[in-house]
Amino acid sequence: MEKITNGEIRPFMVMEVLERAIELEKEGRSIIHMEIGEPDFPTPPGIIRAAESSLHAGDTHYTDSRGILELRKTIAEYYGHGYGVDISPGQVLVTMGVSPALLLVLSTFIEHPGDEIILGDPCYPCYPNFIRYLGGVPRFVTARKEDGFQLRAEDVEKEVCSRTKGIMINSPANPTGTLIDAKEFESICDIGPPVISDEIYHGLVYGEKERSALEFSPDSYVLNGFSKLFAMTGWRLGYMIVPEKALRSLQILQQNFFISPGSFVQTAGIEALKGTHPEIPAMVKMYDERRRYLLKALPGLGLEYTVEPKGAFYIFVDASHLDRDSYRLAFDILDKVGVALTPGIDFGEQGEGHLRISYANSLDNIREGIRRLEKYINGGFNKGDQG
Amino acid sequence: MEKITNGEIRPFMVMEVLERAIELEKEGRSIIHMEIGEPDFPTPPGIIRAAESSLHAGDTHYTDSRGILELRKTIAEYYGHGYGVDISPGQVLVTMGVSPALLLVLSTFIEHPGDEIILGDPCYPCYPNFIRYLGGVPRFVTARKEDGFQLRAEDVEKEVCSRTKGIMINSPANPTGTLIDAKEFESICDIGPPVISDEIYHGLVYGEKERSALEFSPDSYVLNGFSKLFAMTGWRLGYMIVPEKALRSLQILQQNFFISPGSFVQTAGIEALKGTHPEIPAMVKMYDERRRYLLKALPGLGLEYTVEPKGAFYIFVDASHLDRDSYRLAFDILDKVGVALTPGIDFGEQGEGHLRISYANSLDNIREGIRRLEKYINGGFNKGDQG
Questions:
Q1: DSSP summary character for residue B150
Q2: A252 contacts in B (CB within 8 Å)?
């Protein structure tokens, strides 16, 4: 595919880091993984039991292409209770993760070559890849460092034009872990083009309450799923909440591309949202402990963040004093002290000079990672090798 | 999305029939379902047990984006043993069903607007939808009735031009249940453009051995999965076997669109291919019994097929003497005698005047369906109502 060979659609650098880390592990090296954006916890047992019951009940067939009605009702209630919004099951389409949901939504947004989607720089690298794949143009707006790399309405407004089809928001964000200011979020929803809000890190917040785009505009397109909060990445289960009038087109695409989401996996999704799972708050507490440890330890190493990250499981730090080239720096750290981190350039030009540190790893491993980074930074490993 | 609103990407008529059938059932009517293209059997218990073990072992995380190595090895061996071909795991990408696999493959084939994919008319309605979604042109070749609506190499050859990027083959086929002649298959593989062979109905054959495109050309793109033969539609698990040099681009798209296929579902896939499941041959035997019953009963009703269908679970019959408009006919039969069938026009212009009869239903239900069709045809229901 030309868009791949000419670099319009790129692989993720985080995958390259991971692949190199695995190579080193095969050579016998010890590697601390702080590159991966995935819960290190298994799925809570109550959710697993629900899947097993469903399997034994014979739920091994296609479902309604929109997802089973009980799950769509449960999702509508979950958002209703969680954010004080009024959602009908007719607004919900269940998907095989947030990524396919984004593919479907962007497919209905980008109708003509050159249609634009506004998104912050830095952002999750899939966003621009999807947009380019569909023949659209990712219109990057510099997300200011002093705003925790979240978008500001006045900056977005300047980029809106007749080709603008939507505005992507991600809060809590990958790669920064920051939340968008509620006033800015509201103002962005008021600009005009529909907001596509990737809310996959909702629930993984530490102190501050995250806000949904649906609180500010009923015409928002919300993407969410079970992967992060419920530690269900391997289940491939997500959903979208969209204006009711938009659902039919999305359903037709879903029928063609995916037929239906998985069957018994959806029963597990109902249990995740409806059941009581003490493992979930326990996981959130552990993420927060790790986060607080890192927020203390990183500045001591000269790795600074401007706005305190209060969600997801990432901290995005400035490492430009070590090397402006974050790709080179990440591989140098990996090779010399065995800590795997994601280069900031993976998330856009504004991310250059930064590193994304994931704390989806045990506190013991994170402590060891910090010891190794200390050695790298202060132990002479970084001297003279970098340009 | 414009391609949906202007009808380029269509919903499936079979879904409309199904929705109408469910409405009638809610009104208390008894409906015999012979429209659905899905095994009526549950997944064999050994496969379910494998998924459960995997869940308990904590396999709830992302896997390698290509799928786990053991499954890719198992698929390579399965094709190696089944067709006497030499496949490496480096040629295999595991997907969430055949539909996403087709989306990925066609995405790498269609590079420029106007690029063409050759396909038979009639064919599975998703094929042209995918091609149009990607900006390509479905170049339909009339599949001759006397060939069981399978493609003939001489007819394909006439349509090949500089814009031709690939040729779709589906054998055993949906909607006809027929197998392509091996010599024609080989000749089509020799024409030049790579063959995309949808082999999802492989294993569901009654007498004749089905052939893989890989037997005729190592450069073929094979799509297959677990849904039909292993009764695993609700698991969303499929795969592609492609030339090794093509895999990297497909993997990059998979990372972006789907991250990875489901985790424990893949363990179940290994067990499906490697384990012994007496339920599988038993299901095949039952499909064949139903098929043979219908092959006797249908001509007695004046519903003729030209070539004996020897695979999948469909029979495609000429009903043009009842009504040339298969859509109107299918809904009339449903409303008057409560038998749900798929209109032939759903599969292309050449399918008009035909009905697809699925035997993915119990022999008792199928017998009742035939009794009702007899009543419809000979009992005066069809008189005077049709144009």
A1: B
A2: 4, 9-11
